[in-house]
Amino acid sequence: MAFSDNFFNKIEKRTNVDKNTILELAKELQKNDLKNENTLREVIHKLSRMTGKDVSVEQENKIINAVVNDKVPKDVDKMF
Q: Mean of the per-residue pLDDT values for the chain?
């Protein structure tokens, strides 16, 4: 799936994370099992630090539940 620069610009505006950082994180994620709760928690914490946004335990649990149970929207471009 190829993303346009417009997509990355939208993400950067909302998160202050640049395109290269996003692409490096995506490569790292491809190597990991995203159905593993510990892996997901690490990713959430890393993203939280990168974006400067706090994630509560409740939010973290909701994210993990959504990912593990395949409830994440397939059209990522529309999320931003």
A: 84
How far CA 37 is from CA of 2, 40, 61, 73, in Å, comes to 27, 5, 9, 19
Tell me if 78 is assigned to some domain.
no
**What residue type is assigned to position 77 of the chain?**
D
34 is in which domain, residue-wise? 5-73
79 within domain boundaries: no
- Report d(CA 8, CA 77) in Å as an integer: 9
32 in a structural domain: yes
DSSP SS3 for 38: helix
Output the pTM of the full model.
0.70
Q: Where are the beta strands (DSSP E) in 5-58?
A: none
CA distance linking residue 70 with residue 21, whole number of Å: 25
Total count of domains within the chain: 1
Contact 71, 65 (CB under 8 A): yes
48 within a domain of the structure (yes/no): yes
